[in-house]
């Protein structure tokens, strides 16, 4: 009986990490202790395996990037904040090399980042993806955000 109780208390005391960066809010992430944030950084990196730049980053750097993104976008989900932060440095050349699934992630981030632009926010995702492709073809060296504002 003592062994069962000891095992039960050990399991209850163990940290439970079930972070899903696609649904976790930035507010929730920023309230975590350093280990929870580090674990979230690992989960983000795992969720963004289709992004070669992210895959090449150290886990600690992903965590720092997520923390910075969440500070800038506290009301967003962690993944949406990451996508928005990446738009500021991502070039159109990067976008043009992406497959359609990843481009749709960029579109999601763009809609959040440009939510005050009524033209962009009113566009259907497929139309915005087409516009992104057209703008990036015209301005391949620009960042995504700069190209969209041209």
What does this structure look like?
It is a single chain. This protein is 69% helix and 0% strand. Mean pLDDT is 80; it is low at 3-18. By secondary structure, the protein is mainly alpha-helical.
Could you give the topology of this structure?
Blueprint: H1 2-13, H2 26-30, H3 34-47, H4 52-56, H5 59-72, H6 78-87, H7 92-96, H8 100-113, H9 118-122, H10 125-138, H11 144-149
Task: Please provide a brief summary of the model.
This protein is mostly helical. 69% of the residues lie in helices and 0% in strands.
What string, H for helix and E for strand, traces the elements in order? Answer: HHHHHHHHHHH
Largest sheet: none
Number of strands: 0
Radius of gyration, in Å, reads: 19 Å
Question: Count the helices. How many?
Answer: 11
Mean pLDDT across all amino acids:
80
Separation of the first and last Cα atoms: 71 Å
Beta fraction of the residues? Answer: under 5%
Structural class: mainly alpha
Share in helix: 55-70%
Stretches with pLDDT under 50, minimum 5 residues: 3-18
The rough form would be described as: globular
Descriptive key words:
150 residues, mainly alpha, single chain
